[in-house]
Amino acid sequence: MDNRKYLPFILIGAVGLFVIISLSSSLFFKVEPAERAVAFYTLSGELDKDNIITPGWHIKAPWTSIYTYDVSESKVEESMDVLDKNGLSINVDVSVRFTPMKDKIGEIQENFKGNYINVLVIPEVRSSVRQVMGRYTAEEIYSTKRAEVETAIKTETETTLASSQNNVIMKALLIRSINLPAQIKQAIEMKLQQEQEALAYEFKLQKEQSEAERKRIAAEGEAQANKIVNSSLTPELLKMRGIEATQTLANSQNSKVVIIGNSKDGLPLILGDN
């Protein structure tokens, strides 16, 4: 059997296999579970924004470009110098967590060319921090209104990033540290300490005033009670109570001494032996 007639087919198959293997990286691509992708058709110049490529293996034409995005949560930490309401320089460290909208990575690719973190997220975070902190004094930012400042920065940044032009979801924003010049920080801490001492002193005064008021009311009540008792102790009532006491003592079986005198109330004085 002459196998030479099959040689051209074998050669064609081998060449085809070689071409497929050589072009496999251009024909096949994989999207990981934490990724999404969009295709750009080079021949037509069209970015297919509406068809988001999901995780798994896919086939494409060698001349089609694939843009892959990590859609898991990312984190950026920024350190910057900002000015407070009075123009005082403050150094602040901010941490922000975010993720691109999975179904909007086509718009993100079109608007930011795959570099949305440096082009969009970081500048917007820095801008919001500067704008919000410019509304407060260093003392408020450092002590009394830190949570309010953090909430305002988060709200403004979240609104901007989530707009229809940006399509980024902000998960969290934290102010990690606020650094003031040493003298300013010391002055603020001293002022806060003095305010706490003043509040403690005011509380002590209020407590003492309350105690004095309580004693005054108690004294007035006791005086009123004594007045009522004294007004009810008439001579007739005292004489009647004396008679009752004398009868009770006289009826007891204990030995007693009876002194008969002409006292003011006319009652005998009876003394028990115990």
From TrEMBL:
Q: Where in the cell is it found?
A: Membrane
Q: Where do the TM regions start and end?
A: 6-29
Query: Which topology term describes how it sits in the membrane?
Result: Single-pass membrane protein
Ranges for the Band domain?
26-192
InterPro entries documented for this protein: Band_7, Band_7/SPFH_dom_sf, Prohibitin
Highest taxon above the source species: Bacteria
**Keywords from the UniProt entry:** Membrane, Transmembrane, Transmembrane helix
Q: Known PANTHER family for this protein? A: PROHIBITIN (PTHR23222), PROHIBITIN-2 (PTHR23222:SF1)
Name listed for the protein in its UniProt record: Prohibitin family protein
The source organism is Reichenbachiella ulvae
